[in-house]
Design goal:
This protein is mainly alpha-helical. It is globular, with a radius of gyration of 14 Å.
Length: about 110
């Protein structure tokens, strides 16, 4: 396993619980706006620290809203009914990780 794959795997291991909690509090009938916002903030803070980069204030949060605000379109998160968190969490991670890379790794 190369460094980049190992780093990404470590990020998944460290964010898996946060991502599951994020998805749970977005589920129809289980909505919790406070926990949703907190987990989104924690995810942004985690990636800034993991990449050892500081984005402009709120940049990662703002850019990741293209995912978090449209999860039905981006990862197939159901607006009604019970989601399959074990399938959706890795999809969410992949999209969030890609956004974090785009925001936090900038060519100079």
């Amino acid at each position: 396993m190369d460094y980049k794959k190992a780093f990404k795997r470590a990020c998944w291991i460290n964010t898996e619980h946060m991502i599951h909690r994020y998805l749970i509090c977005c589920t129809d009938g289980r909505e919790d706006g406070c926990e949703r916002a907190q987990n989104h903030r924690w995810l942004c803070e985690f990636f800034e620290k993991a990449f050892d980069k500081e984005a402009e204030i709120g940049e990662l949060h703002e850019k990741s809203q293209a995912l978090t605000g449209y999860m039905d379109e981006k990862i197939g998160f159901p607006l009604k009914g019970w989601p399959d968190y074990d399938t959706l969490a890795p999809k969410f991670f992949e999209k969030f990780y890609k956004i974090a890379e785009q925001v936090l790794i900038k060519e100079k």
